[in-house]
Amino acid sequence: MKGRNQRYVYSLLIGILVMAAITIHHRPEPVEKSAYLMGTLVRVKAWGASAGRAVPEALEKLKRLEGLFSRCLAGSDVSRINRAGTDGVSVSEETVELVGEALHFSQLSSGAFDPTVGPLVRLWSIGTEEARIPEENEIRCARRLVDWRRVKLVGERRVSIGRGSLVDLGGIAKGYAADALRASLLRAGVDSGLVDLGGNILVFGSSPKGSRWHIGVQDPLKPRGRVMGVVELAEGAVVTSGIYERFFEKGGKRYHHILDPATGRPARSGLLAVTVVSVEALDGDALSTALFVMGVDLGMELVKRLEDVEALFVTDEGRVILSPGLAGNFSLRAEGYSLETW
Ligand code: AMP
Ligand code: MG
Question: What is the residue with the minimal CA distance to atom 15 of ligand 1?
Fold first, then answer.
């Protein structure tokens, strides 16, 4: 009798221990929300007890940032900067920070990235009903107005631009926003999360599988959602700029939305897409746009100079070229491409 009782108590104890272990290891279902913001589909996913509150809060934060950085909303900081021109105008701290970062990447890329591409963006209107191939003289006139050195950060929070210039932060704002969302989610106490702003992906904390995160990279020649390959990382940003995002076609030629400030036309650098893997999504966003304009040789030279930045170039000949730090962390999944390391 005594033995049976003891066995009973032991099995009960083991049962309790197993249950406790399951409870400790059980990750509650993530909270996921999507919204259409900053001209793109945004997806925020978070794990942890506070995720239910944190995710909607993060989306609210994003709405606020859209209200500052949008080129279209009349009351945004960017619209106010563009209206004020050489007079300058006081803007929010976030806008000052983002403009400062944009100028930093302009200098770093020798102007391949330029936040004053506004006149060219407006002229080509790629991604809108008004998209067209402009006349040569129109391109020449607009190109003269593109010069990041004419943006001045004066006083504490004042921004002024050159006469006729227009600021467009479309090449960097989503990265800034992704970092801000991560900060907001972490502040709210979530354990881990994934933020996806139309191809600007940022992951933090441990992945749902407990291993490293696997992030799919869009196949630039296939419909949205078809993966060309997979990047593996512990945490950080995976940001892609490609010819498939916004474009129109005329006379069998594709005109996409990444403009080369030097020519005033969609960049023809022999690339279909550039993916940057970095700690901050902001760096990844600015750099993926810049590297796309620069092309493989100049682009890889720049990547080599930067710490914590890796890149993957996809050429129009189907070559997938990895920076050395990415070798071993990328697997090709699609037919028709060849893989090499720089
Ligand atoms: P992304 O998709 O991040 O490569 O950014 C492309 C967007 O950035 C375009 O839709 C424009 O609004 C803007 N843009 C285009 N060309 C440039 C450039 N050379 N430098 C900075 N921003 C650009
Ligand atoms: Mg970008």
Answer: 258
Query: 258: Cβ below 6 Å to ligand 1?
Result: yes
Helix (H, G, I), strand (E, B) or coil at 341: strand
Task: Name the pTM for this structure.
Answer: 0.91
Name the residue of 128, 147, 168 to mutate for ligand 1: max ligand atoms within 8 A of Cβ: 168
Residue at token pair 């099995």:
11
> Rounded to 5, what percent of the chain is helix, strand, coil?
40, 25, 35
Q: Which of 298, 193, 195, 299 is nearest to 241 (CA)?
A: 299
Give, using CA atoms, the residue closest to atom 5 of ligand 1: 171
Quick one: CA torsion of 5, 6, 10, 15, rounded to 10 degrees?
Answer: 0
3-state secondary structure 33-46: EEEEECCEEEEEEE
Which ligand 1 atom sits closest to the C-alpha of 126? 10
Return the beta strands (E) in the chain as ranges.
31-37, 40-47, 89-90, 152-154, 158-160, 192-197, 200-204, 213-218, 227-233, 236-242, 247-250, 253-256, 259-260, 265-266, 271-278, 309-315, 319-322, 330-332, 338-341
Q: Please name the residue whose Cα sits nearest to atom 6 of ligand 1.
A: 171
pLDDT, tens digit, 9 for 90 and up, residues 171-202: 999 999 999 999 999 999 999 999 999 889 99
Residue 104 and residue 100: Cα distance in Å, rounded?
6
Whose alpha carbon is nearest atom 3 of ligand 1? 171
| Element holding 180 (H helix, E strand) | helix 173-187
In this structure, which amino acid lies at residue 136?
Answer: E
β-pairing, 259-260 vs 265-266, is antiparallel
239 ligand 1 Cβ < 6 A: no
Is 253 a residue whose pLDDT tops 50? yes
